[in-house]
Amino acid sequence: MKKNRLANYLGLVTASALLLTACGETETIEEEASVDETEETNEQAEENTYPLTLDNYTVSEDGAEFTEKEITYESRPESIVANNQGTAELLLHLGLAEDLTGVAALYGEGDADVSEGFADIPVLSEGYVGKELVVGADPDIVVGRGQLFASAEWGTGTVDELNELDIMTYIQTTSVPGATFDDLYTDIDNLGKLFKVEESAEEFSEVVTARLDDITASVPEDAETLDYAYIFGAEGNNVDVYSGAADTYLNDALSYMNLNNVFADATGEISMEALLEADPDVLLLVNYTGGRAPEDSLADLEANEALSSLSAIQEDRVHTIDYNQFWSYGYQILTGMEDLSNAIYSVN
pTM for the complete prediction? Predict the structure, then answer.
């Protein structure tokens, strides 16, 4: 009787072991099948997406003249060089930290929300980056401000030059003359498609819209339109007035705050006489890394007797703005707008 029980027990143990082994093999097979299915799904999704054709641009060798161009991307770029700080920050918001292999032009305040990811990106140059360093980073694509796609010491190389080296390009639509604030949504949408992060792009567009709505709501309903002018530097009696005529993206963005670029239609350099004649309500003093301290420039502006009649100086309406927030042609303009709204419209 005991022998039969023992035999039965051993039989059960053996059967259980065989069953467990079979289950383990089944689970392994199922896991491998699941991985294979996922990879197959990803490959199928990529096949369905690419080749992807987007409306974009080429630019002249000096980075000044833009030409519309359809660009076809045969596959998802896996390594990215951002030719300026703000572009890299935008790509980080879209979840592309692991794809960024280089950044340049660190000329302003960074976005604290993505500072940790930004710190991990190799800095090719703290100033504008040349073609040699860009190519040396071996990127699949260069993304960023259009004016920097130039065949010059400070340029990344032209679109055609980079394409000939099998390096793809994407010029921010916002950086092209004629752009409006809506082109920020175009860039976010295009980059979402190009890098297969459509959901992140859609979510970030909603964040942009919410912030813009808050900014416009902060402007009093009875606020009159205020004229402004950019001051890129002031030292002694020398004042560098910048027209911003080509920066239509910035001009349109600030129009949401009832601010009007008084030199939006100007050509050539802006003289002191032209500034005095225009007499803008607001002066925007540009601060950029490596430049003169804005408080020193402000002191010289206020001490300049030739400018003493300007309304902006008499009414203490000289406001410092950050280079990265404005001239990265990205979402950072919203931070600049928020700061200006607080400075101009807040009730003391």
Answer: 0.86
